[in-house]
Specification:
alpha/beta, Helix Hairpins, Chitinase A, domain 3, two-stranded parallel sheet, 3 helices, 38% helix
Length: 159
């Protein structure tokens, strides 16, 4: 079983999304399916098939949220200048120009600061290598095409 580490803000957002999907969302999709059924032959009824597809996607998202809500841990972000869960890190790959720097949030895919940045798992090769690094550190990690080195340009608490 996977433990999902979330900020309190993300937990509240997921709970609200779950409530919305299991109430308003299900009612809305059921109405769409009902209206489409009234149009007749279901075999060639595009509205019916689209509504059923939407229902399937929505139910999948509901199950995904439920799995997260059933097995989560709230993380507290420490702003000590080190890469940790909930931090946004700016890195520059060795050999790249400064305008090619990339920003990543280290955490769960459901976390998303404003403005949005890429989310990186702390268990990914680069994510694991970055954990504990500070601005100015160079980190080398094993990528599928060989070893890569990144310089940590900055670390900020995001959540």
């Amino acid at each position: 079983m996977v433990m999902h580490r979330l900020s309190h803000v993300t937990l509240v957002r997921l709970q609200a999304e779950h409530l919305d999907l299991t109430t308003r969302g299900r009612i809305e999709v059921a109405k769409r399916i009902g209206r489409a059924r009234e149009m007749g032959d279901l075999k060639e009824n595009g509205d019916y098939h689209a509504a059923k597809d939407d229902q399937g996607h929505m139910e999948g998202r509901i199950r995904q949220i439920e799995a997260i809500l059933e097995n989560h841990e709230i993380i507290e972000v420490v702003d000590d200048g080190k890469v940790a869960l909930g931090c946004t890190v700016t890195v520059l790959y060795k050999g790249d120009s400064p305008d090619q720097a990339e920003r990543y949030l280290i955490g769960h895919m459901e976390e998303q600061p404003d403005p949005p940045v890429y989310v990186m798992s702390p268990t990914s090769p680069l994510g694991a290598a970055l954990m504990g690094a500070k601005a100015g550190d160079a980190v080398t990690y094993e990528a599928p095409n060989g070893k890569l080195t990144v310089s940590v340009l900055g670390v900020t608490a995001s959540l």
